[in-house]
Amino acid sequence: MTERQSLLADESAWPMLPAERTWGAARLTLTLATTAAATWCYLIGESVGSYLGFIKGGIALSAGCFIGMLLVLLAAGPACVRFGIDSVASTKPQFGTRGWIVPGVLQGVSIIGWNSLLIIFFAKSAVQLGVAVGLVGAAGRGPYLVPLLTSFACGVIFVALRRGASGVSLVSNILFAHVFVGLWMLYLLVSHRWPELIAARPALANPGRLWNYTTGVELGIGATLSWWPYIGAMIRMAPNGRTVVLPVMIGMCAPVPLLSLIGLAGVLVLKSSDPAEWLRTVGGPSYAIISLAFVTAANFGTTTAGIYASAIGLRNFRALQRRSWTTLLLITITPVALVGIFIPELFFARFGNFLALIGVSFAPLCGIQIVDYFVLRRRRIDIRAIYADQPGRPYTFWRGFNPAALAALAAGCSVYIGLLNPLSYRSSALYPYLTASLPAVAAAALVYFLAGLLVIRARRGGYAPEQEII
Q: Which residues pair with 427 in a beta bridge?
């Protein structure tokens, strides 16, 4: 295969051919690890540190992360790896040839939100780094440098992604070392402040110990469920499922709880999850400079992968299928740039609420995909029907929408919010025993299963006759 053919495959939402899927386990692990290691890990650790101590928080968060990653892998993984498609395309057998727009919008909004946060963090860290090394004076903290650096970062990402998935891999190869820098920072804090770390008490711990443990697990599940929008665009580059499972669990999942321990330890001992702030306390200005360089690099790599995944998702819209790759990149990057240039502080202030509302949807989405693929369809997918939206084709359902999926998604979201308000974190009496994400997954799966039986009886959705269960 020529380099030009490989590039065209990288930029397309069509199923990738076996010859085009050239990422081995090592390359996939490296890319996923670089993508996973970003500022959000500190924020996740800070949230867990509000309710649990270092050891208990680390165990609860790790358990939640692996549970969430398993759900994402079971939901989007089989179709994405088997046929070389992205996460959005994998939802068409469940939502329909028009209904897939619902998870498509969720993917786009979620990734744009995360990318906006990370790009702003990149710009702020770069400003702090400039001040620390003397390149930027006090005026550098003014209102113009962050927007300028945001524009610069978006420009560099745009240039890198002109190479498609190869650009993501190239950035990962350059920035992979920052994962080890993060582990070094964790070692410094733990080794210098271990007695204080063990004795520290979380500031917002609930009187009910079980509630605190459950919240630690819930935060871990939510953190890795947010990988659903990203995972398809990455693992479709691998040749088979055997190449994917271990890299996903080691490269995409494990770095999240590990690097979140930085924020968890920082907020417990020094009341700050910002590694630059507490490394200055531990090791002086030189350590703070290393930390700032680490944060800058980490956010850059993750944003590159996110923009690539979002651009691939846009290919599923018929109006954009024939648009140039440059156009898709501009459509994806422009909202991120506008947020970073015009409303960075406002976005920071409201980001938590925005992300919480978006994240509620990914748990039921996973439940829908899992029960459809493994139970109702029994692992049978018509790949041609995913890309055919003419009337009468298997996945057109009713005018392109599957009401079973929409009802299940609504049911799962309702169960989640009933158990845990994602804005106020007020919970029901059952939440400490169940979490919120797992019942949302189960509720969506159950509703989809029952409604799916009616869809099968109506002979819609491309289910084979022998798949009828009752």
A: 420
Query: Could you tell me where the DSSP H helices lie in 37-91?
Result: 40-49, 54-83
C-beta separation of 307 from 333 below 8 A: yes
* Cα distance from N-terminal residue to C-terminal residue, the chain: 48
How many other β-carbons are positioned within 10 Å of the β-carbon of residue 216?
27
Tens-digit pLDDT profile for residues 37-89: 877 788 888 889 999 999 999 999 999 999 999 999 999 999 999 999 999 99
Going by C-alpha positions, the residue among 225, 298, 252 that lies closest to residue 28 is 252
Helix axes 344-359, 101-132, angle to 10 degrees: 140
**Model confidence pLDDT, tens digit, residues 206-234:** 998 999 999 999 999 988 998 998 899 88
Per the confidence metrics, is the pTM higher than 0.70? yes
The conformation of residue 227, written as its DSSP 8-state character, comes to T
Position 468 pLDDT exceeds 50:
no
**Alpha carbons 118 and 302: distance in angstroms, whole number:** 8
Token pair in block for residue 470? 């009752």
Per-position DSSP letters for 109-146, written without gaps between them: HHHHHHHHHHHHHHHHHHHHHHHHTTSS-GGGGSTTHH
Count of H-run helices and E-run strands, the chain: 22, 0
CA distance 289 to 135: 12
Q: Could you report the per-residue pLDDT of 345-358, keeping only the tens digit for each?
A: 777 666 556 656 66
The residue type found at 210 is L
Pick from 128, 125, 157: nearest CA to 38: 125
Q: Summarize pLDDT for 403-419 with one digit per residue, the tens.
A: 999 999 999 999 999 99
Q: What contacts 24+ positions apart, CB below 8 Å, involve 151-159? A: 151/337, 151/340, 151/341, 153/119, 153/122, 153/123, 153/300, 153/303, 153/340, 154/119, 154/333, 154/336, 154/337, 154/340, 156/300, 157/300, 157/303, 157/304, 157/307, 157/333, 158/329, 158/330, 158/333
With the C-alpha atoms ordered 87, 88, 93, 94, is the resulting torsion angle positive or negative? positive
**Quick one: which of 25, 6, 16 has its CA closest to 81?**
16
